[in-house]
Structures are given as C-alpha cells and as structure tokens.
Design a protein that fits this description.
The protein has 1 helix and 7 strands, in the order αβββββββ. By secondary structure, the protein is of the alpha+beta class. The strands form 2 sheets. Strands 1-2-7-6 form a 4-stranded antiparallel sheet, with no helix packed on it. The protein has a 3-stranded antiparallel sheet with strand order 3-4-5.
Length: about 140
C-alpha cells in the first residue's frame, strides 16, 4: 500500500504554477485596458541574458521625477508624464510625443521581484530583473 506523504503530486505543482502565471498575465491585460485613449505606450524591448531579464523603455526627454515604475506580482507598470512645451509661435509639424505614458509588462516567472533594479540614461529606462536559480525537480523511479 503506497504511503501518502502529504505532498502534492508533481503534476499538480506544474498546473498550479501555470495557473498563477495565467492569472498574472490576465492582470497585466486588465491593467492595459485601464489606460485612457490619450495615453501613449512607449516603445519597449525585453531580452534575456544568462543571469537577467532586461526590459528597456524609450523615454527621451524625461526627467527622473516624471517617471514612475511599480511592480505588482509579476506585472511591471511604467507610468510617466511629459508636459507639452510652451512655444510662442504656431506649430507647423508636431511629431514628438507628450502627455501621459503607460506600459504594463508581464515579467517571466523565473525572476526575483524583490531584486529588480532600474537605471535611466540617455533617454532609455533599463529595468534589470535578476533570475532566480533554476528549479530542479528530482525524478525518481518507483
């Protein structure tokens, strides 16, 4: 008769982890829907190195006081506000963006949210998300 160790089977752990990631992704999509029509999403790149997941946002012309970065679970939310510059003449062409900027990003599940760092240089906000150790699952034959 097999003994019950009180521990969930491995398949249940995988399922629970996937459900958690789906919930976090749905939360990010809900956050995206909360943004108003006049708000802009800045351009973003996300890439992975051996030790980190790097997210870079293009935010030219901003100061640090105009940028807000929040993390909720595995959702990273960028909010920024850039006022329109006042000029004496009439505009002939306006291509530069101004106003409110928002972007909600789902961070991969293998990242340590407590160790995330950010730096802003030359108009690029770089968010460094250190990865946690790889999860190893022991497999034993019964």
């Amino acid at each position: 008769m097999p003994r019950y160790s009180g521990r969930k089977p491995f398949t249940q752990e995988i399922f629970d982890r996937q459900v958690g990631e789906l919930r976090s992704l749905l939360h990010a999509l809900e956050m995206r829907d909360l943004f108003e029509d006049n708000e802009t999403r800045p351009k973003m790149d996300m890439y992975e190195t051996g030790q980190d997941v790097i997210i870079e946002f293009d935010l030219p012309g901003f100061t640090l006081n105009e940028i807000s970065l929040k993390i909720s679970g595995l959702t990273l939310t960028l909010e920024a506000c850039k006022p329109r510059e006042q000029n004496e003449g009439k505009f002939i062409c306006v291509e530069r963006s101004y106003g409110r900027f928002h972007h909600a990003v789902h961070i991969p599940g293998n990242v340590n949210p407590g160790a995330i760092k950010a730096e802003y240089r030359r108009g690029v906000l770089r968010v460094i998300c250190p990865k946690i150790c790889e999860w190893s699952v022991p497999i034993k034959e019964i």
